[in-house]
């Protein structure tokens, strides 16, 4: 029995052009970006699922440092608790984040801890790429899984060694960036395309009634803030980001072999080509026979091999001809009507692409 694992998505099926999209959903504004933060900290309060100190000596070191900062002298002491774990703490500092605002953090074990469920992250400074501290994280971890151990078996569901703390970090330092003093801002397209960039330039210039935007390449549109005659760059971008543009995208087919998923665009076309497909199945079965000597007879018990082999051909599609400039959606619909499985359909699309008849970018994952 064949299971239909194919998911066919046409973003603009049956439409000549794409639906209008806001500029804010198509571009990134120069300078308006987040910054990655990372820190090394300690999780306490685990129910015996923490790091083994022998296998993770760095856990003992950071625990000693934290206790000494709190006024507890542990020099020369030997302790091996099982309720602590060393972790990496990661977060993203959003643009224009101000001191005192809170951000989400992700906590991941780096030792041999079995679970972070129920643990509490001790105050952990978060550094940016320049080495400075921009936030401090602390709080109770929400783990994404569970684990249980027995004497002879264990079970794990999800990833209990990783979790998150919503609003678990407080911003202590702001990014130095004079956005209000900018005289020009570049709009970087997420999917570079000359046609889309040209349309963005035209829409912006039409909105302001003068030439304030210039397309510099397929991925960049430069906006002259002074020419917009707005009070500040924030006012200008607030007026620009909600303008509607019809984006143009390259024809693309994405195939996921693991799940049998096929995703395609409406602009994919196939030249005239003939397709014939079938499957061969080789089957070998082993049924050894044990032969024993008769009672009171001299001899040894032997195993006599007995094998059977055969080749079966599953019914496929015969010679099918695809007409000139057919859409891929029509081809896939026809193959589905013939009962072609998703796996065979992926192989057919690969062969059509290898023959040079598939006019689209073919991506296999």
What does this structure look like?
The strands form 7 sheets. Strands 3-4-5-9-7-6 form a 6-stranded antiparallel β-barrel. Strands 2-10-12-11 form a 4-stranded antiparallel sheet. The chain has a 3-stranded mixed sheet with strand order 15-14-23, covered by helices on one side. It has helices spanning 57-69, 194-208, 225-228, 233-240, 328-337, 342-354, and strands spanning 21-22, 27-29, 35-44, 84-93, 102-109, 120-127, 133-140, 142-149, 154-171, 184-189, 213-217, 220-224, 244-245, 252-256, 261-264, 269-270, 273-286, 289-291, 302-304, 307-322, 326-327, 358-359, 361-364. It is an alpha+beta fold. The radius of gyration is 32 Å and the shape is flat.
The sequence of SSEs as H and E is: EEEHEEEEEEEHEEHHEEEEEEEEEHHEE
Number of helices: 6
Q: What order do the strands of the largest sheet run in, or round the barrel if closed?
A: 3-4-5-9-7-6
Helix/strand structural class? alpha+beta
Main sheet: strands, sense, barrel: 6 strands, antiparallel, barrel
Query: Given the C-alpha coordinates, what overall shape results?
Result: flat
Query: How many DSSP-defined strands?
Result: 23
| Unreliable parts | 1-17
Quick check: average pLDDT?
A: 78
End-to-end Cα distance: 25 Å
The total domain count is 3
Percentage of residues in helical conformation: 10-25%
As a percent range, the share of strand residues is 35-45%
If you compute it from the alpha carbons, what radius of gyration comes out, rounded to the nearest whole angstrom?
32 Å
């Amino acid at each position: 029995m064949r299971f239909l694992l194919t998911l066919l998505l046409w973003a603009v099926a049956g439409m000549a052009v794409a639906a209008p999209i806001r500029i804010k959903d198509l571009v990134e504004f120069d300078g308006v970006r987040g910054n990655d933060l990372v820190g090394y900290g300690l999780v306490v309060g685990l129910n015996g699922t923490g790091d083994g100190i022998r296998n993770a000596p760095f856990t003992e070191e950071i625990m000693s440092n934290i206790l000494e900062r709190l006024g507890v002298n542990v020099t020369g002491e030997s302790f091996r608790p099982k309720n602590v774990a060393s972790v990496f703490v990661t977060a993203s500092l959003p643009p224009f984040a101000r001191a005192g605002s809170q951000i989400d953090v992700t906590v991941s074990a780096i030792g041999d801890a079995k679970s972070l469920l129920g643990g509490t992250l001790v105050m952990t400074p978060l550094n940016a790429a320049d080495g400075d501290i921009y936030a401090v994280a602390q709080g109770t971890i929400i783990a994404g899984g569970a684990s249980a151990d027995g004497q002879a078996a264990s079970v794990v569901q999800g990833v209990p060694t990783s979790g998150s703390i919503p609003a678990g970090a407080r911003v202590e330092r702001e990014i130095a960036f004079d956005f209000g003093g900018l005289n020009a801002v570049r709009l970087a397209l997420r999917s570079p395309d000359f046609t889309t960039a040209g349309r963005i330039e035209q829409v912006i210039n039409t909105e302001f009634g003068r030439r304030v935007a210039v397309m510099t390449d397929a991925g960049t549109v430069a906006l002259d803030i002074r020419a917009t005659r707005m009070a500040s760059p924030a006012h200008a971008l607030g007026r620009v980001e909600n303008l509607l543009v019809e984006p143009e995208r390259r024809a693309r087919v994405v195939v996921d072999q693991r799940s049998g998923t096929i995703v395609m665009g409406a602009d994919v076309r196939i030249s005239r080509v003939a397709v014939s497909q079938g499957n061969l199945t080789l089957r070998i079965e082993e049924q050894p026979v044990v032969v024993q000597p008769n009672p009171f007879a001299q001899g040894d018990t032997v195993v006599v091999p007995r094998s059977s082999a055969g080749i079966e051909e599953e019914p496929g599609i015969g010679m099918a001809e695809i007409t000139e400039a057919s859409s891929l959606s029509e081809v896939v619909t026809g193959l589905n009507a013939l009962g072609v499985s998703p796996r065979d359909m992926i192989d057919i699309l690969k062969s059509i692409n290898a023959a040079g008849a598939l006019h689209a970018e073919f991506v296999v994952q």
